[in-house]
# Entry
Amino acid sequence: MVTVRAPATSANLGSGFDVFGVAFDRPADVVTVERARETSIEVTGVGSEYIPNDPEKNTAGVVASALDAPASISIDKGVRPSSGLGSSAASAAATAVALNELYGRNLSDHELVQVAAEGEAAVSGTAHADNVAPAILGGFTVVREDGVESVDASIPLVAVLPDIVISTRDARHVVPESITIEDMVRTVGSAATLTAGMYRDDPDLVGRGMEDDVVTPARADLIQGYDRAVEAAREAGATGATVSGAGPAILAVTHSGDQRDVAAAMLDAFEADGIDSRAFTSTIG
Ligand code: HSE
# Structure
């Protein structure tokens, strides 16, 4: 029997759609696997009632099939599904790492990222690896078709999750199909600024580098209370705030010491819109 914990993650960071990701310290999914003749899945914890047990429809089941590693899989969800905090990725990542150990497959972390991304495809329709990469490698990650880079950054983060559900599949439908050259230039400038900020552990650069006029505005429209919460975060000292992954969570970057104020301001903003929400503070994990 093998048990593995994989944390919540935040993908995109505004300017890095399907490319950037960061790992949190918590919340996390905990997955336990045991050898079996056929794969079966039991899910408990936050939002488990919304997650299919059918191995063909569950990220963990798809991972078991990709590794040819049948198992009894128990998933204790700490990351709420449809949150924008990499819920399906946490389960897929933990399952890939656990089955690799259980069956002695000896796959590298980078190979496990590809396997876990196949599990993601079962949920969102696309095998994007920008959540599973930080869930497995930790830190700040940059995903390209030919591999993954990871950086041990130390940047304070706040994620606020409103009591709204948005599926990744739906949020991908609003992504524009093309962009202008002006938007591309601005986005590349932001992404490069953010990357420099991660290498320098500079929250100002990271916050500025999250600016994005392409995907974020379309997705923000799906999140009731988004504008008010982002404005509140900035007023409380956040260096930047954006949609976390496909939403509805909002990710803010802060200086150390400002996390509590930023979290409180965003919670208050959602409350003013009549929406319950909860906050997670973390340094990139
Ligand atoms: N990059 C993906 C998206 C992440 O934004 O659709 C989903 O969690």
In short: The pocket of L-homoserine is lined by residues 11-12, 17-18, 86, 128, 130-131, 168, 171-172, 245-246 (CB under 6 Å). Strands lie at 2-11, 20-35, 40-45, 71-77, 140-144, 147-151, 156-162, 240-243, 250-253, 277-283. Residues 181-200 form the longest helix (20 residues).
